[in-house]
Amino acid sequence: MSRRGLRGREAELAELRTLVVSVARSGGGALALLRGEAGIGKSTLLTEAVELAEGHGYSTGIGRADELHHLVPLSSLAGCLLDGVRPLLSGDAFADLARRHDQRIRLVERLAGVIEARAAETPVLVALDDVQWADPLSRFALRQLPGRLRSSPVLWLLTGRTGPTAAGEEILAAAGDRLPVARFLLGPLSAAAIGRLADDTLGEDVDERTRSLLDGTGGNPFLAVELLRGLRTEGHTAEPAGHATEPAGDPTSVRTADAGTESGPGARSTAHPAEDTSPSVPTGLVSGVRGRIESLGPDTLTLLRMGAVLGRRFAFADAAALCERPPATLVPALDEALRAGLLDDDGELLAFRHDLLRQAVYADIPGSARNALHRAAAHRLVASGHRPIDAASHVLRGAEPGDGEAVALLRQASEDVLPVTPGLAADLMTRALELVRPSEAARFDVGEQAIVCLIRAGRDREALTTCDDLLAAQPPLAVFGRLQATLGGALWSLDLAEELRRRAEAALAVGGLPPDVGARLAALRALALSRGRDLGVARSAGEEALAAAIATGDRPAHVQALSALGEIALNAGDGAGALARFTALSVVDSAFRPEEVVAHQHTDRFDSAEELLRRAEADAGSHRQAMFLWAQGQQHLGRGRLDDAEAHFVTMEDLEDAVRIPVQQVNSRVIRAWIALLRGKRAEAGEQLLAARERLAVKPNPGNRAAVRFLEALVAGHDGDARSAADALRRLQEIGPFMRWRLLRTWVGTAVRTALSAGDRALAEDLVAQAAAHAERNPAVATATGIAAHAAGLATGDIGALERSVSLLAAGPRPLVLADARVDLGRALLAAGRTAEAAAVLAAARDAFAASGADTAAADVRRLLDGVAGGPGADAGSTPGAGPGRTGAVRDRPVQGWEALTASERKVARLIAGGHTNRSAAEVLVVSPHTVNTHLTAVFRKLTVRSRVQLTHVVLARSDGE
Known about the structure:
8 strands, single chain, three-stranded antiparallel sheet, mainly alpha, globular
């Protein structure tokens, strides 16, 4: 039977009860979204779900997003974390979290650890009301956390209004199929339910006039209750007899769908500005609220209006300040508003009982007065010690062009939120720039800050347009150069190297630049020249830029110059030079440690790279953390650990997608496709090719275009289309003079075989010459010299060169490159009749492929070995893992079950089953918690479990002693 006041929602309540019980029993997470129009019953169902969860032993936290609170980072989730008998975080811990974690990924990981630890003790419910108004950082966290914590008993319950933006759907989409998802669409209450609601409020003897009025509410319980409250207050209908009614002085405690109390301990934050929501507020509600408040005293009416401007939740002192009255003189007005059931008081803040009430009061304020009130509210909040971001929404609503104080406040707010919400920072600065009149000198400083924020937000085209608009105003020479220097990163990201060079040289030629600006422009010019054909000129420019940066002591110029010199060295194939530059760069700025790690790998210094990765894990920021994962993936790939490499690349892709900074997406897909082909998974390789093409469209720089061409060559070669494969390789050279060898550094053998299969000897000889030149530049790098010998041996059929390549590569750190050379040597020995030698070489290659997880490549070599024993019939011309329809005798790993798990996945499974959290397991394995999460996702999929409890049962049931 329904509770009194909660009518017509019995089915939804039963489903929520089932969901609460299921999460508690299964030990796995779930996500639910309640959607419907304003006042339809979402909040009350949410409250009921919280009570149900508490009855089943849950630790609960409930928060409410605020339309007027949508800018402050993490404000929406604050209530979820700070609310409840046992909050997930103390106020001090929450403040420390916000202060110490200035990157989105790190902050979300910390939140995940807190919730995961609590869920190890008891099921957890995280409930957020009105998700359509959640701040950007809270939305970001909600897109990550449910999937990240899917194996813990955490129920995420969100409510959102219906509308064109489909509130909350992006959070459900991000969860995908990783955990159960439930959607509830709340429609109007039936006439019978509305009738029972009237009986609850007015008694069973409800006259026809009242019922007719109720028909006009359209089945919306909030509107119905407000109508009934008005009727009861006016005495149109007698109090019901024989019913447990609410005290006459406390009409707010009647609980109906979305008509109940909605303020509470989760509402910790102070007010934020209102948007003009009057078009979405029912006219009848505005009229009804106006009718109710007309009977109130003038002080009460003024207090309510000032509160509506401040927000749904507001401080009494702030409202009194806007009224220009001492707080003590407004206490009677506050008492009257509380008695009328319009406001609630939680002991800290006042709150409108429902946001529709606030919206109705706000809509009744003359439009000409709203902007002035918002400006006054901004001044009040800042004067009383609030952060600039707390007042920013008021500025956005009330500021007018030429308002210097508003511009200053927006600039400070933007600077404060830039690390965690760069998109918001860019929006704030764009508005600040609009508020500066064209004639004001501050326009260029504001514009420069806007460009910085737009670049950080990945909005490079907008940054370019903004810069050109500012330049059209003919700024002073020093400002001209500074704007060009600020724009440089956007031009590089947009693959406009020639435009970058032109602008940098123009600014330098104009002269009149401060030394630091000149040094930055010189470094950008050197970076642009790294894409040209004369790397000698580029190197000289880089050295000059570095000298200028050191002379001026300008750190950004120093970083840019070293980065340019490192890029130039890479394009020149100078491994030692690149290592020196990137090592120096990481000393100046540790965020560039991944580049140093990769430079060590290029020079075969994998032990040094391993040590750097261990030391650097704690220093990574959000987008740099993705780069560290890229470097870790390359480390595993080079060492022949394909399972771990793929896990790191998958994790890196997820992180880059999360922060929307696509750096290595295309390259990662190329490597994963190559791994798939080594394992005989042609369909998966095709999927990776499609994904790489999609990501190329997002970031079509030369490196990505070359990578996609190479992947097309790999897939075509696997399919037996040697001509198309060779054509794709030829087109690599057309993209840029250095792209092919940078891409083919360890894949030259595959490329040469492709060229020879297509009968394109000129291409093969060109590849051999490039490999030889690279080896000459890197004589101390075993991989470089060994690959050059391998390419030469393939092109000429020289067994001696192939033997030399195997000898050189055996001294290096890359087992799969060595295995590839051994296969070609084995084939050549077979063709020469040197069967015993061939068998030994091929056996070593087979073992290396098998140990790495390259199952099909190992099977193909086994076929060659079978041919050695069986005589004619061996396919001496096949390529391991790269031929059409390859199959072999080496057993493929199963798709499901314990045997399907990789070694790392088994380690993770045992640690989690042993009670470790993702973070503590990561510390044991010396990897990131994100990588543990990737492994755990695979474990759950392969074992068909959905919670840590179920995983523990599987692990405990194992009796093989692994």
